[in-house]
Design a protein that fits this description.
Cytochrome Bc1 Complex, Chain D, domain 2, alpha+beta, two-stranded antiparallel ribbon, two-stranded antiparallel sheet, binds heme C, single chain, disordered N terminus
Length: 326
């Protein structure tokens, strides 16, 4: 076994509803020497913790419930078929799976994506607006308070404003798509390794209205403005987390190729859309230089449409500039 591999149990709920458990080795990249490595607390730890008041425990658990099943707000705050936990595995605790607690220790801070200083609530709102193709709950609302409490509790005992954090984000593969990576190769990987769960057309799978396998593209998935729409983010997420239960199983090339394939499919419009995809790509090029939005695949211009999925509007009000100028 490699130095940083551990073994964990994965229960995969197959379409039949049968529960299969398999013991699999987790292959994750090693931490760097100067990095802070966090061990986020578990619900068991929370229950045993005498320092935390019962009223706060209740709110933390509420936040966790929203995080795990954000679909309870479908049609109100969520218009995709995704929940927070689908992209932040292990209840938002897992390294290399976008652990969520660093946001609680590093914000408020300047964020390049929207060009201003963001609070924790605004960062959470970002994932509602893009990743969930939704409309964030009001700042200061019970939902935002509960989610913030959950994030901050997961950060228990972590240093504030520490930036060298091991396993933060999805990391590991770098930002540049290797030159010889091709869509067609990605399609082969997809059909062989992913379609069994996510469906031949990326639509995912729901059983009795409950999402079992989340959709990867199409109207029910994340929109063109979501972090996961960047090929490098998806490549690293996939490399370190997919196929489910087999992190590290794909070669780097296969992870890049399948990420390119998934992110060259149509999905709901970027809420920052100006009405012209090329213009929007240029305007937000610091982001879209890493997506396939506004580029051509087989002669078709990706993202040139008014489709917002199940969401009956384009842009939630929460996406607004913030300046401290008088
Ligand atoms: C479609 C996938 C997806 C979904 C669903 C999703 N997120 Fe995220 N989230 C991301 C990506 C991608 C990032 C950026 C990671 C990076 O910087 O590389 C991110 C980052 C974050 C961060 C910042 C973490 C840090 O290191 O500072 C927080 C907090 C967060 N998400 C919370 C949420 C919450 C809460 C929800 C549900 C309301 C949610 N996310 C749903 C993909 C998703
Ligand atoms: C055994 C079933 C299974 C296989 C095979 C599988 N996935 Fe997943 N995938 C899941 C599940 C379940 C989740 C949500 C995880 C959670 O909520 O804990 C997920 C989440 C995702 C997500 C983030 C959520 C979303 O809908 O965008 C992406 C991207 C993804 N998988 C891509 C892939 C790719 C690419 C492959 C093939 C290399 C793959 N998956 C193979 C079950 C699977």
């Amino acid at each position: 076994m490699r130095p940083f591999s551990t073994v964990f149990w994965v229960a995969v709920i197959l379409g039949s509803g049968v529960l299969h458990a398999a013991e699999v080795p987790v292959e994750h990249p090693p931490f760097k020497k100067d990095q802070y490595v966090h061990h986020a607390p578990t619900v068991d730890d929370l229950m045993k913790d005498q320092e935390i008041k019962p009223q706060l425990k209740k709110v933390i658990l509420k936040g966790r419930d929203i995080f795990m099943n954000t679909q309870q707000y479908r049609g109100k705050y969520v218009f995709s078929r995704l929940s927070c936990k689908n992209c932040h595995l292990g209840e938002g605790r897992l390294n290399w799976s976008g652990p969520i607690w660093p946001a609680a220790t590093t914000l408020p801070d300047y964020r390049g994506k929207n060009g201003h200083v963001n609070s924790l609530e605004e960062r959470i709102a970002g994932c509602f607006s893009f990743s969930l193709n939704g409309k964030p709950p009001e700042y200061g609302s019970d939902i935002m308070l509960a989610l913030s409490a959950y994030h901050q509790w997961l950060a228990l005992k972590a240093p504030v404003y520490e930036t060298h954090i091991g396993g933060r984000g999805y990391s590991s593969l770098g930002k540049d798509i290797p030159k010889d990576i091709h869509y067609v190769q990605g399609e082969k990987v997809y059909q062989a390794q992913c379609a069994i769960c996510h469906g031949a057309t990326g639509q995912g799978k729901s059983v009795e209205g409950k999402v079992v396998f989340p959709p990867l593209w199409g109207d029910d998935s994340y929109n063109w403005g979501a972090g996961m729409a960047r090929v490098y983010t998806a490549a690293s997420f996939i490399k370190n987390n997919m196929p489910l239960g087999k992190p590290g199983a794909l070669s780097d090339r296969d992870a890049w190729a399948v990420a390119l394939y998934v992110n060259s499919q149509e999905r709901p419009q970027d809420p920052r859309y100006t009405g012209d995809v090329k213009e929007t790509r240029e305007k937000y090029f610091n982001f879209h230089q890493y997506t396939m939005y506004g580029t051509e695949r087989d002669g078709v211009l990706l993202g040139q449409h008014d489709n917002t999925g199940a969401k009956p509007f384009l842009k939630p009000d929460a996406l607004r500039p913030r300046t401290f100028d008088e």
